[in-house]
Fold this sequence. Notes:
This protein has helices at 11-22, 38-42, 63-73, 94-119, 128-147, 162-176, 189-199, 202-205; strands spanning 2-7, 28-32, 52-55, 58-61, 216-219, 225-227. By secondary structure, the protein is α+β, with helices and mostly antiparallel strands. It has a domain at 91-201: Up-down Bundle (Glutathione S-transferase Yfyf (Class Pi), Chain A, domain 2), CATH 1.20.1050.10. The strands form 2 sheets. A 4-stranded mixed sheet has the order 2-1-3-4, covered by helices on one side. Helix 1 (11-22) packs parallel to helix 3 and helix 4 (94-119) packs parallel to helix 6 (162-176). Bound molecules: glutathione (GSH).
Amino acid sequence: MRALLFTTGSPYSRAIRIILDELELEYEQREEITTPSAEQRAAATPTLQVPTLWDGDLTLWESGTIAEYLLTTYTNRPASEPPLVANPWRPSAEWQDKLIFSTIQTFGTAATTISQLKWTGVSIDQNAHLKRSTEKLTHILGWLEKQLEDTNNGFIHDRVSLQDIFLASHIRFIQARPLGIDLNLSNYERIDCLLARLDRRKSFLSNPVWWWEPGVVGYEADGTPKYQGETQSK
Ligand SMILES: N[C@@H](CCC(=O)N[C@@H](CS)C(=O)NCC(=O)O)C(=O)O
């Protein structure tokens, strides 16, 4: 049995869903539109967060750990152009790869903190840490842009990497939510080109980013949000 617990809007979970599709692995989708009670979530993970993966006897949470597990356990790479990396980290550049990946996850933490706080009533202009988190996004993007070799490659030459997939998920999450953050992506040409290429990839197209804000309780097949109290569309 393989299953993934995720919320519809979670960027970390979207990255894992993309990787599962890249590897052509079947799995049961345990999808939640909003976060349930702590007790319900604790039944899956002590962090109370998604994604959580069940694979046979193994239960894993923390998206980076899940991603590394999937890439090292399932070594078949279905044909795609450019192909998915063979290993999560290149032996010749292990620390560089891990540093870029962790920095991308810190970018994601800054973004999801801003999002969580916004929906619990605290906006960026009301809170010094959120302002700092927004500044962090810009600094990290600037640094990441310099880690890309050109506009034709992701973080690993001629391959699609975990770094590519997670950065794209976090950035598209920020752009799809009404958070009041403008990343000015056109200032980061290499990142912008990388994301445009990934948006056209099959695994990304089959896991679209959908608009979410409080009150959204479901989606039409085309991704149009359905709101609480809205009459059932025909
Ligand atoms: N470090 C975790 C972060 C995951 C995370 O922040 N998940 C969010 C959804 S995007 C979540 O479950 N938030 C609920 C909470 O933090 O209580 C990972 O990489 O999996």
